[in-house]
Every structure is written in structure tokens, then in C-alpha cells.
What does this fold into?
Amino acid sequence: MQDRKRKMAGKGRRVKVWVKTTASAYTGYISLPAEGKRFSDIINDERKFISITDVEAKDFAAPKPFLVINKDLIELMEVLESE
It folds into this structure.
């Protein structure tokens, strides 16, 4: 995970989020572009899916490196921390 943080340096920032969908709940990171976009800009843009990295969930035996979630299935999201 430290290597991924170094690669993100100067390219944007990662935001740790909790996401509740119709089927489960996930904790992971969303990458925000360096252009100064806000978390809400990513959630409200035209893309149908949101990418989350370093994902943990009760449904998983181990963390997953990457998950894509359909925005239509998201019920709640919370920002836990910003790097």
C-alpha cells in the first residue's frame, strides 16, 4: 500500500470511504484527480461506476485490491479520512 501512496504523490489524493450498497458495505479508497476535484464531483459525475481500492468487507475473507461499484446500487457513502 505504501508503494501505491508514493505513485499517487503529485497525481491527486486518496480518500478513505465507507460505502453501503443494496447488498453489502465496503471500506476502501477513492482516488481524486489532481485537478482539485471534490469527493462530491466524483459521486455526481456522469460515470455509472465508482472504483474503490484496498477494499475490506465482512463478505470478504481477505481485502481486495480493487472493486468497481455501480453508483445506482449505492445507498450511503461517508468520507472517513482524506490523505
Remarks:
- The longest strand covers residues 12-21.
- The beta strands are 12-21, 25-33, 49-56, 64-70, 74-82.
